[in-house]
C-alpha cells in the first residue's frame, strides 16, 4: 500500500515538471479533482498537484515540496514520506513563511501566492476567488490606462551615498514628468519635499516638469507602528491598488486618494497604522479592495 502511494507521489512530482502555461497536465496517474483546487495562471515559482487524498506543493524557489495528506484517509495513517526535499504532513497544517519582497516577479505574480497559502489551509476556493477579483480589477485598470492618449515619462530613482541612481543629469531629468523617489531611509517621517530638493541639488530647477507639476512621490505612505512599510506587505497582495496609485500619478484626477504613494511636493505625510486603524474584526478575513473601473 505504501509503495503504491509513493509511486503515485513520485509520478505527481514528475508530472509537475510538465506544467505548462498555467494549465495543469499531470503525467501518468492523474486524478480528476473538482472544487477546492487552485490552478496557477501567472506565477512562475510554485506548482500544485492534487491527488485523490493528498496534494503536493512544490516551491521552485527553495526546491522544497510539501505533501499534504487528508487527515481521515488511510494514507494519513500509513504514509511517512520525508526527505530533505519532500516533507509530508497531515492537514491542516500551518507554520511556514516566505519573504515575498525578494521575489523577482511582477506585482501580479506575487498576488497569486495567495493560492500557495490557500492550499495549506484548505481554502483553495476562497484563494481562487480573491485572485480572480484582484486579477480582473487589475486587468480592467490596465485597459483603461492603455486608452489614455498622453504618455508621461516616469523616473524611479534612489539617492544613496550622495549619488542618485538612475540619473541626476539635469538634461535627462528635463524629460521626466513624474518622479518616484525610492531612496531608503531610516526615518520616513523626516523625508519630506525639503529633503528631496536638498538631495536633488540642481541649481536651475525651472525646466523640470516633475517640479512644476508637483509630481514627486515616495512609496512609504503606509507604515506600521514599528516603521515597516506596507509597500512590502499589503501592496504584495493587492497589486490593483498599486496600479491605481500609478494611474493617479501618471494621469492625475485629483479626486483619487493614493494608498501606498505620497506626494512629497504636496506635503503628504506618512501614516502610521496600528491595530486601531483596522476597521474589521481581526478574526475576519480581509476582502480585496476593488477600484471602480469601466
Ligand atoms: C471547499 O472546502 C471547504 C472547507 O472544507 C468547504 O466548506 C467547501 O464546501 C468546499 N468547496 C467545494 C466547492 O468543494
Ligand atoms: C514553526 O516555526 C517556529 C519558529 O520559526 C519553529 O521554531 C518551529 O520549528 C516551526 N515548526 C514546524 C513544525 O516547522
Ligand atoms: C521638512 O522637514 C524639515 C525638518 O523636519 C523641516 O524643517 C521643513 O520645514 C520640512 N519641510 C516641509 C516642506 O514641510
Which labels suit this protein?
signal; 11 strands; alpha/beta; 10 helices; single chain; binds 2-acetamido-2-deoxy-beta-D-glucopyranose; five-stranded mixed beta sheet; 294 residues; disordered N terminus; Rossmann fold; elongated
Polypeptide structure, described:
Helix content is about 30%, strand content about 15%. With about 290 residues, the chain is an alpha/beta fold. It folds into two domains: about 1-120, no CATH class; about 135-275, Rossmann fold (3-Layer(aba) Sandwich), CATH 3.40.50. A five-stranded mixed β-sheet has the order 6-5-7-8-10. It has a four-stranded mixed β-sheet with strand order 1-2-3-4, with helices on both faces. The longest helix has 23 residues, at about 125-145. It is elongated and about 75 Å long. The N and C termini lie far apart (about 55 Å). The structure holds 2-acetamido-2-deoxy-beta-D-glucopyranose (3 copies). One 2-acetamido-2-deoxy-beta-D-glucopyranose binds next to α7.
